[in-house]
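Re: the pair you flagged

First of the two:
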Amino acid sequence: MAAALSFPFYFLLFLCSVLLPSHEAAFLPELPNLATISFEEGYTQLFGDSNLMLHGDGRTVHLSLDQRTGAGFASQDLYLHGFFSASIKLPSDYAAGVVVAFYMSNGDVFEKTHDELDFEFLGNIRGREWRVQTNVYGNGSTAIGREERYDLWFDPTEDYHQYSILWSHERIIFYIDGIPIREAVRTREMSGQFPSKPMNLYATIWDGSIWATSGGRYKVNYKYAPYIAEFADLVLHGCSVDPTDDTPVCQGNDARVYDSIRMSPDQQATMSKYRVKHMTYSYCHDRVRYSTPPAECTLGHETKSFLPSGEAKFNYRRHRGKRYGHSSSLNSADL
């Protein structure tokens, strides 16, 4: 990558190291030549015409949703494994029905056997926080939705926060502000449903009124439009692929660098702490959808913390009018 890490991205890493104790530092992978890029260097607009706007010499992208259309962009290249990241600031105020997505997919190439890795941000009514959902699809296995939903320890509308995906041959790790929140490991039980084909990276904003907020109870209210999602610190650090024959550009050690990344015991502990406190739904505990849990699910004592619907029990006890504090800084006590 030609560009150096942008100031907000670098400052976020510094802030994490200062505010978090050493055993709970930001856990971004150590990768060679990790750098941010401009929109023109790595992306192309998908839809939305003037609802996609570039700022800051093309290093910040605003996607807006109004009654006419949403907007979206995609990476110019396909990738087979890598580290993909963006700092995102979500729309504020009433955002019910609004969906902002940062994800990888090859659905336009493999219509019935596509792979997908999702960050989906689900808006809410005023006074209730945005929710974050992750999902993993492999080889067209849409009948098994591997969704997990979480709340956050900060207000994602006040400032930029970093959302990252590491994808290797062996594992997928989702990060928020350098904190690992989910790991999906290739297992015999998942068989061919582990994502294994080249994918593009996408970012979109769109109207998800029919399902996004309380199962469609609350719709997008265009009185509050335009809804604007801001993307900065764009990172495409992966093995690009020739679309004509699916040949990866990187070989040897360059191709294996992502497979070498493992979480340490401290990282595993921090991830577990986040999941216990902030996970609000898990497909592994959803007995309504799956009378028998999907084969890769390993259930333990945490089962008692979930309802048969897969919703976390604490989610029904918490104060529904919760407001965030004014500080958006990463703080280990908030995890």
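Second of the two:
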Amino acid sequence: MCVVFVHRAEKTEVLSDDLLQIEKRMELVRQVSHNAHKKLVSCLQGQLGTDTEKRQKKLPLTALSQAMQEGGSQLGDESMIGKMINACAEAEGKLATELMQHEVLLERDILEPLNQLAEVDIPNILKQRKQLAKLVLDYDSAKTRWYQAFKSNNPTMAAKVDSLKDEMDEALNKVEICKDQLSADMYNFASKEGEYARYYVLLLQAQADFHRQSLAVLETAIPTIQIQQGSTVPLFEQYHRFVVVLKM
């Protein structure tokens, strides 16, 4: 880094315009990722961080399936409603499994990376930025002390020029080391924007797969239920004719 001494009020700038733009973008990406993570978590029906069995037990669909199973057992298979509700209970249980697996995938492939980006990776780089700013202030202070001693006519001050020069050089070295590491991390972040954007594509793909699997469960269950329902149609017809006779 080339340093030009003008006067004591000079402030050393160490980041290029490109890096300053990346810094602004990082803060924006951090906020956007944080908000997306928060809202996506609120869409989940299961509990984050729990194993699959516990997660599925807590799903509303699982509770619905269990309630239907209990109702079907109470009504019995000889009852039309009992048959229908048992068949629906099985389908709802399969839908709960699909939902659980979907949410586990979201947590692993999307929520965890987003949280890592927003709460760990970017904050660590921004922490380095603050450290660099502090080191720059230390360097500017050391530079000012050296410059004042260098220009002073005071013998006592002049005697300190060499030691103050060493302090300034040491402070500058710390700035350079921190700046190099920060620059590398910031450019690395910028190079991975495509990877970060992919999280949102994965979200849509995961949702599409989930809906396809859920639809497959329903499309398998409905014909079976309709067949069972068809076997009971004569009962409906008998009841309908009975009602019509009563009204005549």
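The two ends are 104 Å apart (CA to CA).

-B.
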